[in-house]
Design goal:
Elements (H helix, E strand, L loop, with lengths): L1 H24 L17 H8 L1 E6 L2 E2 L3 E6 L2 E5 L1 H13 L2 E6 L5 H6 L5 E6 L3 H4 L2 E3 L8 E6 L16 E5 L3 H9 L4 E5 L2 H9 L5 E5 H10 L3 E3 L11 E5 L3 H17 L1 H14 L2
Parallel strand pairs: 1-5, 1-6, 9-10, 9-11
Antiparallel strand pairs: 2-3, 3-4, 6-13, 7-13, 8-11, 8-12
Helix pairs in contact: 3-9, 3-10
Length: about 280
């Protein structure tokens, strides 16, 4: 009996050794090669595939971008819009316009809800952390919009001390209002139209605006005037694109350079200014 048990154990041991040796000598199963990753289309390729480029803007900033009734239809117009149209034309695609609050534009660009921003935007350093900017295409002075009745009273920066001053949120004008006016309060709102209404209703005493915009609102309303106060020239405005879209940025810079050299942007500004002054 014991001999039989020993024989069985010996056979099992030999079988086990043979199986182990077979496993060790087996060739490793070749790994299945992962399919080659599809090449990610460039930004311009994506835009051309859609057949349109999506513009983000804040249409309360005449003559840059604003709403205008044309032939009974509300349209967004302005020299920024004409620049955007020219860029779309150069790319061979249509233009879709998304009108939103200025302080929401960068967030919309970062998540690809829009393809580019043309909205009188100054390329400040903090903005450059999240997006890239084109060459600058326009520069203007910073002014102060007031009520006509206060024209003789508010004639200098010192005269704004202790007053309530309005400015658009997340803009250079908001920074200037806080840094240079010594205002008792700086009221920041998302829409310039709301700020102008606050000025008309006596809720603020002045609104800091870039020169062409201040002039446009003053010409539309005889109760408003542009003061003689100058807060200096803006740094210059540029077009914003998402990071990682160098091909689109290059195409935009090429379009802008062509327009600047041909005097096309000056023509757009002149036409938009006249349009903003029409009733």
């Amino acid at each position: 009996m014991k001999n039989n048990v020993k024989k069985v154990l010996s056979i099992m041991l030999v079988l086990s050794m043979l199986l182990t040796l077979a496993a060790c000598g087996a060739k490793p199963t070749p790994e299945v090669a992962a399919p080659e990753e599809q090449k990610v289309a460039s930004k311009i390729e994506q835009i051309k595939a859609k057949g349109k480029i999506v513009l983000g803007t804040s249409a309360d900033y005449p003559p840059y971008e604003f709403h205008k009734a044309i032939n009974g239809k509300d349209e967004i117009v302005g020299f920024d819009i004409e620049i955007a149209k020219m860029i779309a034309k150069d790319l061979g695609v249509g233009l879709e316009i998304k009108d939103m609050k200025f302080d929401g534009l960068l967030a919309a660009l970062v998540v690809d809800d829009i393809d580019f921003i043309v909205a009188g935007m100054v390329p400040k350093e903090e903005r450059k952390q999240s997006v890239d900017f084109s060459i600058q295409y326009y520069q203007a002075d910073q002014n102060v919009l007031i009520r006509t009745e206060d024209a003789e009273k508010i004639t200098s920066i010192e005269a704004l001390k202790g007053l309530k001053v309005g400015a658009q949120k997340s803009t250079v004008q908001e920074d200037l209002a806080k840094e240079k006016t010594e205002a008792a309060e700086v009221k920041s709102l998302s829409k310039i139209t709301d700020l102008v209404l606050e000025l008309q209703n006596g809720k603020v005493d002045a609104v800091v605006l870039v020169g062409p915009v201040a002039n446009a609102y003053a010409k539309q309303n005889p109760k408003l005037a542009v003061s003689g106060i100058s807060l200096g020239a803006e740094e210059g405005v540029a077009i914003a694109v998402n990071k990682g879209t160098a091909d689109l940025l290059e195409a935009i810079n090429k379009s802008l350079d062509t327009m600047i050299k041909a005097g096309t942007i000056d023509k757009f500004i002149e036409e938009a200014t006249l349009l903003s002054e029409q009733e």
